[in-house]
Amino acid sequence: TRNTTERTPLMQEFTSWFNSPSIVRSARPVENELELMESRLVIPTPPAPARRGYSPLVEEASGPLSGQDTDSMAVAARERGIPLGDIEVGFGSHRHVRKLLDNELEDTGVLGKTPFDQFLVYRGQTRGLLVKSSQRVRDAAGQVSNRRGVGKFKGVIRVRAPNEIEEDKSDEKLLREILAPRKFLVRLYVLEGVNIMPKDAGSASDPYLQIKLGKKTFDTKKDFKKNTQNPKFYQLFEIETSLPGDSQLEISVYDWDPFFTNELIGKTELDLEDRYFSNQWRDLKDKPVENRSLWNPSCQVAQGKLKLWVDIFSVDMVKANPPRNISLPPPMKFELRVIVWKTRNVNIQMDIEDLNDLFCKGWVEGMGEDKQETDTHWRCSKGEANWNYRWKIPLMLPMEFPRFNLQLWDRDVLKWNDFMADATVNCKDIFDRAFKNQAAEKLWGEKRSASLWNSAMGNEQRDDKVWIKLNGRSDFTKEFTGEVLVSLEVLPWSVAQSRPNGVGRTSPNQEPWLPPPAGRIKLNFFNPLGFLADILGPKVCRRLVCLVFCGLYIACMIFMLPMITSNLLTNAFTG
């Protein structure tokens, strides 16, 4: 504090710079000294990767932001253009709603201007301006600079005139807290990793967490997640610390290796003091879930993200705030019921008869090679097949790749079957909802045309039958081939046992009842030509009819030839 009423130009410049928002805190640890020196202590914030998809126990809400518009976090985030929404965290009775950020809390402006000021501390010397030559930092004279960062200064600095010292007492409470360190309990909730960059050649990493605060270090090396880019951690870490004190919480993700040294994938750091001593932070009842980028000193690109949130409680408030249970429940058995109804707009290569013998195959990734098949629609005309066929596929949820694969084939009796088209259905949404709610969930299609009363009451009706686009392959490219109508429902195993039904159209044929498919061949002794047309197809049938008539004409001509010849000779000699 400089007690003078005279503000020198240097003091005015310092005060203007100090009170400006140019001093920013970054979630990224910056290792490049030249970047720090050239930026004049302004640490750039890296752009956040795009928002990712759903997680097993975190469901992002679509639509406008729910809650009150006066919420400080919502207002601050909207002003800075930061997407903000609600998510549901936890399982069963522990489910609760929190706000979700697309990136770090520091970048939303929610914390406001922290009471601490940080300045980098350097060792060494340099002469004149710095220029970058290859990988070295040189001064204007061409000499290599030996200046390097060795730490940072963190404190509270205020520049005031004498008459402002007595009047400004807004910082008294904060300064008393800063000058009297207290013990706190830090709770770190790590939910999951998103798009973690692989370190192993040809496969995903085996990630685990390492948490460091001061001299305290924790890791989950014994519980590494095998071969995944989206690890589901769902772990709570409780760490005791003193604030002010050790406040740099470092969360690292490592790749576990059974033979070599475990390799750092990336890390993120956050300052506990900047959070706890911020009034805006204390006003937040439930701290938001952050998507924090993982950074590696050897790379300028984020190595993925971590979904997490942090709580800080003084020791006297710990009992009044018990920890949240975010642990994943054990895998549970479910059943996926798929009904393959029919196809439409199928544009595939027909046999010579303009007919195909179509059937479908289906399976869920990660559930073995047991592919289920429908029956065959023999002699299907124009690619419009009907099956009305039910599959029952056992599942274990949650699963890493919740995808259902569907293929269309042409059966051949004399040689191998021909592949026609395929489709992949992303079942993550219904699988997650069924797992969280422990209830049956369906894949819903388009809205039905509701009655006038239902429309007035806002009761939307949706169809549980979904048209899925099929893609064929031609010269290694995909082409739209048609659509297949299916119904998908996933049920807890206990619910499936209480609602039995048969595979295909076998008994018990219920929920729903499947009628016999239309357009199938039927033997009819009273209409042999119609049966023949079903077997051979209309084109071949027309050709066959023409051939028969031509044969009859030729046979008649051959039969009548002697009589015609005799008549001609008789007329010639008697005429």
Name a few traits of the molecule:
single chain; 575 residues; alpha+beta; disordered N terminus
Using only C-alpha atoms, the radius of gyration works out to 37 Å
* Biggest pleated-sheet summary: 5 strands, antiparallel
Give the termini distance in whole angstroms: 147 Å
Helical content stands at 10-25%
- The total count of helices amounts to 12
Mean model confidence by pLDDT: 78
Structural class: alpha+beta
The coarse overall form would be elongated
Describe the model.
It is built from twelve helices and 25 strands. It has 575 residues and is of the alpha+beta class. The strands form seven sheets. Strands 16, 20, 23, 24 and 25 form a five-stranded antiparallel beta sheet that branches. Strands 17, 18, 19, 21 and 22 form a five-stranded antiparallel beta sheet that branches. The chain starts with 8 loop residues before the first helix and ends with a helix. The model is unreliable at 1-73 (pLDDT under 50).
